[in-house]
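Input set for joint prediction.
Command: fold jointly, output C-alpha cells.
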Amino acid sequence: MNRYRWNPYLVGALIGALSIVTFSLADKPIGMSTGVAQASGACAIPMLGADAVASNAYWSKKAIPKWDYGALFVAGTFLGALLSALVSKSFRLEFVPEVWRNQVGKSVTKRMIAAFIGGAVLLYGARLADGCTSGHGISGTMQLAVSGWTFFVVMFITGVLTTRLLYRSTSTH
Amino acid sequence: MTPILAFFSGDTLLWAGLLFGIVFGVLLHRGGVTDFNVIVRQFQFRDFTVLKVMFTAIVVGGVGVFILQGQELANLHIKPANMLAVIIGAGLFGIGMAIYGYCPGTGVAAVATGRVDALVGLAGMIVGGIGYALSYDWIAAKVLPVADLGKKRLPDLAPVPEWVWYVALVLMAVTVFRLVAKVEPKSYRD
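C-alpha cells >
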C-alpha cells in the first residue's frame, strides 16, 4: 500500500458526502463523461469546422462545448488529482503500468495503441449508455436507477471477461 | 420542485463545479483508484479497492440523498433506462476500461499524476466522443428508442416501500465488504 493512499472506505464515504453536497447545493449529480464529450466537441471544431459542430444534434443539445458546471467539474478533477499528486510527491512520469508490463508486454508502442483504442471504445460506450462509472456507477446506483444498476452489472461483466482474455494473470484464477 | 437548491447559480455555480471537481480529483487519487494496477486487479478479483470506494460512496450518498429528498431539500436525477443503449454502451465501456485501465474520471485524474498512457487514452476518448456525436442521428433513431423504460427506479419495479430498498442496499454493501475481507489477498489490503 502506497503511502499517499487513504483508507478506501473513508474515501468512498467522502465521495458519498460530496454527492450529498452537489445534489443539495448545486442540484447536480457527480458525472464525468458528458464533460469529456463536450471537450470532444471543442477538439472537433478545428477538424470539422465550427458550423459542423454547431449543427450536430449531439453537440448542440446534449454536450455543448462550453465551460459550464459539468465541464468545470472535469477540469477540477484534473486539478485536484494534480494537487494531490504534487503534495504527496507521487507525481511520476510513467509509460507502461506494472500490471500491463508483467501480464501483457513491455512494448511502449503497443501500450499506447491499446490505451488509445481502449479510451475510444470506453467513451463511445459511455455516451451510448449516457453515463460512466461516475454518472451511472455512483450517481445512478445511489438513486436506485434501473439504468445505473444495469450499467454497473454489464460493464463489470465485460470488464472481467476482457481482462481474462487480455492479461496473463499469474494467480491460479 | 425547487428546494434550497438555488444556493449556487450563475457564476457561483461554475465556481462550485470547479471546486467540487477538485475535491473529487483529490479523493480519486487518495483512494488509489487513479492507479491502473488497482483497477485491472479489481477485474481480476485480486484488489477490491474500487468496489470498496464505490459501494461506500453509493451507500452514504444514497441514504443521504434519499433523506434530503424526503425533506424536499434535493431532487433526484434519474437517467432514462433505454435498455438496448445502456446494455450495449455498458458492454463496450467494460471492454474499453479493461484495455485502457481507467474510466473517464480516473483517466483524467491519472493524466494529472503523470501517467502518459492515460493521456494517450484521453486522446482516444476525445475521438470516441467525436465518433458518438457523428453517429448520434442514427443512434437516436434506431437504438435509443429500443426497450426504453423511461426514468425508472428499482422501487418502480416492485411494490416494496422505498426504505426497504435502502435497507437492502446497506445490507448488500455490508455483505460484499465482509466477503471481500475474506477473499482479498493480504498484500493488497490496507
